[in-house]
């Protein structure tokens, strides 16, 4: 897009205008984003550019004004000498471009300052010079998606199922090292080689094609050669996997079904981008393999995983394809050695090159479809990884600013976050105010106001104001990195439902081999002529149609999708067991402070008893409490600051332990405390004031009396407020059939007040941490399935004792460690979403297991020829291969429906 049109004032609106921020050409007549500065109207391509301009107009106007002047002077003289902005690919005039940079001695020109900054932060990313990313940090642990207990240091393949091992920490790198491209290329080569084989073999039967002599003999050789290439080259990965599943080594065979895929996979698995490593490191040090193993509760093997005897789907494919091809090759070259049982009515020995070739091609198609579908299951996790920006704008001690790669940001750095940009790391705002979109981490759509001293989280989006922040947590310590690690761990964990499939899978392959032998024997003894040929086809069909992978994928693929979906809605599952268990919960035990309430005292009411203004009374109380760090004092001071009341100075300050405080403020003697202090101050408390105070106490508030010059002037009620979303959440939980039990260490009056307000079923007040755990155990002993939601250290025993522990996101690390579910934003309503997701996931797993069991239970007998005695129907090995290839894809596709499950 050419960027030579310029911004003009509204008095003479041109046909096109240039966005002064990004340099894009926009139509003033249709542009919805405009801003007036110094009487001149500017047009923008989007709201983000408009926000950036309004935050720092001078930064963009210098370049725009210079560009307009130079363009008018040069006209089209340089139109033939335009160059491309290496960042946005826009055409710019090197003679008029205001933004320039040099790299390796070569000049580059840019349409805007932002493009230049991006280029300077990472030139190789825009010049196509990027070298292959360095290998993963030493000690990177890889695991199997289907068998997470299989772990090793370095890339490889699973000795149980043959699947490629993947890093335990995911990568954002979209380039897979050519794995999918190589598999696609190999598949189309196999199609090109298999179609002639299929046409030559099946043409006479399907279309009546018959080649005249001597071409019929040549056609046989063509069929044999092409089929041999397909089986020996295209099927080599399957033979390699099948061989290794028997505990044997055959390093010359590739691991994956793709040209050069062993090498491509190695490059892919070893590669991690700089940004990904920054998110998986702690304080600049990679997490050691033994620590990862310890955290996950699994053993990690240094080097290669030992090869157990673990026959799998590829064992069956190798057997079926190998038998079909080997038989056909011998029958083609040495037909005389076969007995009459293999010969048809014309005395010929049939060959099945087309079956072997089509089986290999269809299995490769299945692998390709499964690989592509499995990638989609990790889309949510990649989306989380993609939240982190590549660079951060760091402010140096001298006030200069520069974009630096994210991994160079350290705790304590001062960073600038401009409108429309992502917050790079976790930290605290030290200047500025803006709305920040946190929906990608919490699932809540409403932006949150951020101002000085407010915490901001890496990956969230600054919307409309410039913020200056100080970095506090970087790399693996950020909330985003911890969420990614937690979701990745949950995706690798095994659900209890998987145990049934595991027990069946342990006997599956031997049972299929026995079924194939029995099918061969029955057909050989009772089948029509040629008996042995029919017996061979039946045995091959049985071996090919069986699909243990459908059983193996049924649970983990659903868990993977559900974990990512939960993370998008602010619900983090520690493991698959939590996803399954949450579905059966019938009782929710909740802590009061920090779970139902905000967790900090706040001034809820100031009752004026005299004729003095409320603002003045609040200012007097704040003057007394400002020196104190007591939570009740902080609540009064915070309310005064929020309302902007005048700051008054207190003198002759006296603190009376157990009673309150007194001082001289604004020429008056002021006392704030309990009834005892009022008596000492000679301030009489009327019956109406006592009744009002008792009413406030019944609502869970702590009441303080304020006296001015010996006269009771006000009542101040301080309480821990109920969170705004709590009533609706409790109502939704009740509607879902859950019994709500509240446990709190607070007094019974406050607890009962909160319970009445929210309609909670059962209340236990004045309980210790041990008592909380005892209540949970009692409920479990009554046969209830109990979930516990809490946020404090005192909740940890109860969280650990419950069937499902739920930690509120704003709580302590101890609570989160003890829980199996974490709510990022700490809102009780997220439990409703988590339970819906759990129900949808378990239902999806049941569907997958049902399909896998039914498919194999029906498919194997059909392949064996069980319908032949009644209907004369047999199943071709080619149809069996197609069914087997689509079975795993069907399981994965069904699991992907969880991405759209209503929550």
What does it look like?
This protein has 903 residues and is α+β, with helices and mostly antiparallel strands. The protein folds into five domains: 10-127, no CATH class; 141-383 and 495-553, no CATH class; 389-477, Calcium-transporting ATPase, cytoplasmic transduction domain A; 570-596 and 723-835, Rossmann fold, CATH 3.40.50; 599-721, Calcium-transporting ATPase, cytoplasmic domain N (3-Layer(aba) Sandwich). Residues 1-14, 62-80, 129-136 and 252-305 have low confidence and may be disordered.
Describe how the helices and strands are arranged.
Blueprint: E1 17-18, E2 25-26, E3 33-37, E4 40-44, H1 47-55, H2 57-74, E5 83-84, E6 91-92, E7 99-103, E8 106-110, H3 113-121, H4 123-127, E9 141-143, E10 151-153, E11 166-167, H5 179-206, H6 215-234, H7 236-245, H8 261-270, H9 274-279, E12 281-282, E13 285-286, H10 289-296, H11 313-333, H12 353-377, H13 379-385, E14 391-395, E15 401-405, E16 414-417, E17 426-432, E18 434-437, H14 439-442, E19 448-450, E20 455-456, E21 461-462, E22 467-473, H15 479-492, H16 498-526, H17 531-545, H18 548-554, H19 556-568, E23 571-573, H20 576-582, E24 587-591, H21 592-596, E25 597-608, H22 614-625, H23 631-643, E26 650-656, E27 660-665, E28 668-673, H24 675-680, H25 687-698, E29 702-708, E30 711-722, H26 726-735, E31 739-743, H27 748-758, E32 762-764, H28 769-781, E33 786-790, H29 796-801, E34 804-808, H30 813-818, E35 821-823, H31 829-864, H32 868-871, H33 877-896
Parallel strand pairs: 24-31, 24-33, 31-32, 33-34, 34-35
Antiparallel strand pairs: 1-2, 3-4, 5-6, 7-8, 9-10, 9-11, 12-13, 14-15, 14-16, 16-22, 17-20, 17-22, 18-19, 18-21, 23-35, 25-30, 26-27, 27-28, 28-29, 29-30
Organism: Rhodanobacter spathiphylli B39
Transmembrane segments: 187-207, 219-239, 314-338, 350-369, 504-526, 532-555, 849-871, 877-896
InterPro entries: ATPase_P-typ_cyto_dom_N (IPR023299), ATPase_P-typ_P_site (IPR018303), ATPase_P-typ_TM_dom_sf (IPR023298), ATPase_P-typ_transduc_dom_A_sf (IPR008250), ATPase_P-type_domA (IPR059000), Ferritin-like_SF (IPR009078), HAD-like_sf (IPR036412), HAD_sf (IPR023214)
